[in-house]
Amino acid sequence: MSGPQLTFSYFDFPARGELSRLIFTYANVAFTDDRVVGFSEMKPKCPFGQIPVLEVNGTLYAQSMAIARYAARVGGLYPQDPLEVLRVEMISEKLLEILNAYIDARWGEETLRAAKYKIFVEETVPKAFGALETMVQGKFFSGDKVTLIDVQLLDVVLNGLDTIPEPVFNLTAFPKLEAIVAAIKANEHVTAYLTNKH
Fold first, then answer.
1. What SUPFAM superfamilies does the record tag this protein with (predicted)?
2. For helices 18-26 and 64-74, what crossing angle results, to 10°?
3. N or C: which end of the chain has fewer CB within 10 A?
4. Residue partners of 52: CB distance under 8 A and separation at least 6
5. Which CATH class for the 6-76 domain?
6. Prediction pTM value
């Protein structure tokens, strides 16, 4: 039996759309990557008048994290055990907090940007990553099995931390997290996707 017909629609930049793209890509789930240009024409059809949206067999669904979790389920990157789901979603929400703090710094008042970047890189991220480092249970957050949060960590690093001009952030102080990022990037599908992006 073939899987659902999936079309993911978002602007041609990472922001709120890249996590779902990365999950589908890592899991090798077939989907159409629709890079939206004329959003005004599409807007009335979207459930909340915004993107990203995921079309599944002709029906549109919205909200970036809902789509990402669906992508993880379809791709086999979501746990079955309720307690493990709780743990994965706990870490996922912390990673989302980090990304939201980055977005606040990046798109907030321009005169405050440098100061916000400094606080983000030197205080916010080290504190959060220090806690996350202790939660890695093997090669990945959940032992030897990749889940949503391993891919989400890559998204936060590539499309958040790595885009900050200064102060420069690197993962060397967090070797377990650094190893997760390297392993997800080394996935053949992700490698090809990232290579073709640049």
1. GST C-terminal domain-like (SSF47616), Thioredoxin-like (SSF52833)
2. 0
3. N
4. 8, 9, 10, 16, 17, 20, 62, 64, 67
5. alpha beta
6. 0.94
What gap in Å lies between CA 88 and CA 84, rounded to an integer? 6
- Determine the angle formed by the axes of helices 64-74 and 148-159, rounding to 10 degrees: 130
* CATH number, span 82-186: 1.20.1050.10
- For residue 118 the two structure tokens come to 């400094």
Rounded to 5°, the CA angle 133-116-150 comes to 25
**109-138 b/e (C-beta count within 10 Å ≥ 16 → b):** eeeeeeebbeebbeebbeebbeebeeebee
pLDDT of residue 89: 98
Looking at residue 81, its amino acid is D
Give the start-to-end residue ranges of the domains of the chain: 6-76, 82-186
Rounded alpha-carbon distances, angstroms, from residue 132 to 1, 60, 156? 39, 34, 13
